[in-house]
Amino acid sequence: NGVYANENYHLLQEVLRDEWGFDGFVVSDWGGSNEHVEGVRAGSHLEMPTTGGDSDLELLEAVKSGELSQKLLDKRVDELLDVILSTTAAVKPLEGKPFDIDAHHAMAAKASEQSIVLLKNEGNILPLKKGAKVAVIGEFAQKARYQGAGSSVVNPTKLDHGMDVIKNFQLDVTGFEPGYPRSGKGDPAMQARAVELAKQADVVLLYIGLDEISESEGLDRPHMRLPQSQTSLLQAVSAVNPNIVAVMSAGSAVEMPWLDQCRAVIHGYLCGQAGAGAMLQAILGEINPSGKPAESYPIQYEDVPSAPYFPAKQRNAEYREGPFVGYRYYETAKIPVLFPFGFGLSYTTFVYSGLTVSESEVVFTLTNTGTADGAEAAQVYVGKEDAQVFRPAKELKGFAKIFLKAGESKTVTIPLDGRAFRYFNVKTNRFEVEGGEYQISSTPSTAFGWRWPASLSLLPFITSAPPF
Fold first, then answer.
1. Catalytic site residue from 18, 23, 29, 220
2. Under a CB-based contact definition with an 8 Å cutoff, are residues 254 and 208 in contact?
3. How many CB atoms lie within 10 A of CB 413?
4. pLDDT computed for residue 444 by the predictor
5. DSSP for 370-397?
6. What does pTM read for this prediction?
7. Does residue 29 carry a catalytic annotation?
8. Contacts of 125 (CB under 8 A, 6+ apart)
9. Helical H runs in 92-180?
């Protein structure tokens, strides 16, 4: 509302501390501090990066001139020191003590296993049979794309790469070709060698995705496509071998006009240091993919609500979507998508039954009706078809991940509270609940109706309610 977040008293003091009870300290994003004196007054503590002492002088001058009280400045220092001293005391007993690198790597592998998403599996080409004759193509198989760039970079204790760990799996690997350079224009000679290798295998494991340069902090992506070098390789390889399993690595959604040229698409996102092995486990069915994308995949970038404003053409970027971000927009505007938020295939099948709904919970029975063990991430969406306020058609309000052996059933309870039905009233500057009848739906589908609908009445009509 016209005030920078780092200098916004309403956000940092009235909401963050007074309403939410936060007792830590506030750090600006790098370059996110505009007026440090005003930031300190509003509740900000640490300005990043350093200004070489300029901001310190501004604070001193503000105290001397009476613009800022010394009592308030001391209060901010105390709040910052409280966290610094308590944190230092908490980690001191751990200093110098060894930790189990292998156990941590195993935990990283478990996280990767749980997050792999199966987007396409035509003819159940996956999981591959043991001993399958495969060609491995794609530079990402040799050097994994496993994390983001810029400030998100961390140092792994170990790092698995596909071609290093594939020897641990029962596959007949005919060879490896990078097929494309990691960044920049394609290389015809590299592509030609990859095509020749693809002819020698029954299945091609084609490692593709976005490189570090394509998605990083401090820049807008110019488009939502894969690098041309990769799509060109995919077209060439699919012309000689139709059994393409696209193994994706990326931290954000991409357009997929090439989807019909793959039999399967399995996505590891940015899978961490142990992701390469977890991906091969999923490809062979040693684990059952159970991840769901936390974003919608549009058919084309022009379908995205922010498309007219990004890449930003001026200094300021405009966010005009309001609450209609991601699936909230696509579902409300009835814009078809390639893969909806929360979508994800499995090597087994699940059936929902016996739905009951109350103001406090959704209860149903989930049954694994397939032949493989697996986990389902069940989701609950809430909407109000006759809403009189400006709100999306439906919103995710709860979920649960349930592991079931083949043929097993479980009763699942997903709790709801007042937050499930509220909206933010910009006139009263508070969360309120609109009275009336709400609809409950389950896991999203590519159709834009309610799957598995049920009604819930909330009466009387509430025109003013305290924040939850």
1. 29
2. no
3. 12
4. 55
5. SSS-EEEEEEEEEE-TT-SSS--S-EEE
6. 0.90
7. yes
8. 203, 243, 245, 263, 264
9. 101-115, 139-142, 162-165
